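Table S2 (continued). Query chain:
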Amino acid sequence: DYLQKNPFESAYQLNIGYVEADVFLRGDKLMVAHTAAEIKPDRTLESLYLDKIKSKLHENEGSLFADASEKMTLMIDLKTEGVPTLNAIVQHLKKYPQLTTTNTLIVAISGNVPDTAQWRNYPMFITFDGRPYKEYSAKHLERISFISDNFRNYSSWNGQGEIPEADLEQLEAVIADVHSNGKKIRFWGAPDVQNCWELFRKLDVDILGTDKIEQISQHLRQSK
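Corresponding output:
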């Protein structure tokens, strides 16, 4: 999302349900960038997201959207060491009690996620991105917002034509397994094209990853 022309605002106006930001810990600051080389002093988690979300919550009297039934998940991908980066995120979020108490914003941590044994050290407003190949206890599953995996672990399909049947069967199996645990599933690294969006919808993939938020929003509205 942070590479869009108007980070957060564009997604918000389109009622996008999930927004992802990659975060690097630099000193006591949380910098938003795809790689360390792309870090810019003014692009912090606070300026790009937390301040804007706080403003929307104020406008809508405690809800992120005007429709209080609508929610957004802020996915924060930890690009630096998990524990210190997440500790810093928690400290930053504590400065924004409006964000941590509303039920219309979910904070989900991905990337260098700390080991499950350490999850109990974090407040309940922090949730996590799980993996399908890991075993989780019932308590850990409660802290997981969704399960993610690399699409390339299942297929090298480029989004053109039909996906190979063997790849399709692998996808169906992992999706069914994740859903059996009552969790949502997403894939990263999948072809960001309409053909793949349509396949994922047929397979009941819950979260569609894309950089093309305007195109996918239009496609989904037309497909209703």
